[in-house]
Design a protein that fits this description.
351 residues, 11 helices, single chain, alpha/beta, globular, 2 domains, Rossmann fold, 38% helix, 14 strands
């Protein structure tokens, strides 16, 4: 299958199917409704199961049940819907179960609006639910990268037995680009050692999957083991892209759609003689702090560009060890920074 022109949400759904996802539970919310719509039409053709829950709360708990059996299961939603799922996501992380969650972000807080945003960075990376848990969070910036990350998401979900989130935005969900979607086989070889339903395969050994533990010493030990897993993610599986860093005097930090816009601005500024580069985190958790070690001595300033009020800026400051001044530029509420606005901000900083 060659490249096909597809809408982002539909490409996400088809990529999931080609990666082996056969169970989808969700509830409609703009701007990601084409994902459940596509799944409802195409999953049954592949022997899969689509169920629209009565709410996001019901849907995420269906995901928990399917994940406990070792299935490749997925849900999708948008910002307020993810908020409703947060308790269930915490349960899944606490139970150490693999699943994939897609968030096509919209403006907030509250019901906000239905236009694109990146206002869920903190919710995704710092934990929207209770307790010491983390999601692995990917932030693609093109539809092809989205397809590739959706398909590899289950590899990481099963590697770590942990939920993985694809953090996109309304632009990416609704835009159309040519994509190539290939079949992808996920490694699930060890699933019989822990999943429900493999009683005889384990020599009649029972398994118990839960997130509740009323013994404080045991709960602390469990949290310590979870933290070791998150530390391993940080060590082994950060992803990032850099651009034009060698002689950069100003470095833009941006992800997703904001990074696409910033790349065009950087190209224009380079033509004018301004030395501007880019660090683009692809994993938002684990955050690629090491990417900022590649910033050259010529750098004078870091500019964080996002479609929110500056939610990534603290991670950028940590990555730079506060060696450089860090400022923020962006829009929120459904507005995106334009190429011209980013160029103007960079010229102002560089004088």
């Amino acid at each position: 299958m060659g490249k096909v022109l597809m809408k982002g949400t539909e490409a996400i759904a088809e990529a999931a199917i080609q990666a082996g996802c056969r169970h989808f539970f969700g509830y409609p919310i703009t701007p990601q409704n084409e994902i459940p719509e596509y799944m409802s039409l195409h999953l049954p053709k592949h022997g899969g199961v689509y169920i629209q829950g009565e709410s996001e709360v019901a849907s995420i708990n269906m995901v928990l049940g399917a994940a406990a059996t070792g299935c490749q299961v997925m849900t999708s939603s948008s910002s307020p819907g993810i908020s409703l799922m947060s308790e269930g996501i915490s349960y899944i992380a606490g139970s150490e179960l693999p699943c994939v969650i897609v968030n096509v972000m919209r403006g907030g807080p509250g019901l906000g609006g239905i236009l694109p945003s990146q206002a869920d960075y903190l919710q995704a990376t710092k934990g929207g639910g209770n307790g010491d848990y983390r999601l692995m969070v990917f932030a693609p910036s093109t539809l092809q990268e989205t397809v590739d990350l959706v398909q590899s998401a289950w590899d990481y979900a099963f590697k770590y037995r942990n939920p993985v989130m694809i953090l996109a935005d309304g632009f990416m969900g609704q835009m159309m680009e040519p994509v190539e979607i290939k079949p992808h086989e996920t490694d699930r070889r060890d699933v019989k050692s822990w999943a429900m339903g493999y009683y005889s395969d384990r020599g009649n050994e029972r398994t118990l999957i839960k997130s509740m533990n009323l013994t404080p010493e045991l709960l602390e030990a469990h949290n310590i083991e979870l933290q070791k897993k998150y530390d391993r993610m940080q060590k082994e599986d950060t992803m990032f892209e850099t651009m034009d860093l060698d002689d950069a005097e100003l470095v833009i930090a941006a992800y997703g759609t904001s990074a696409r816009i910033a790349k065009t601005a950087i190209a224009h500024l380079r033509e004018e003689g301004y030395k501007v580069g880019l660090v683009r985190p692809i994993t938002l958790f684990p955050f690629p702090y090491e990417a900022f070690e590649k910033i050259p001595p010529s750098t004078r300033h870091i500019l964080d560009v996002e479609m929110n009020m500056g939610q990534m800026i603290d991670d950028v400051k940590i990555g730079t060890s506060c060696k450089y001044p860090v400022s923020f530029f962006g829009h929120c509420g459904g507005l995106a920074p334009s190429v011209e606005e980013i160029e103007q901000e960079c010229r102002k900083i560089l004088g």
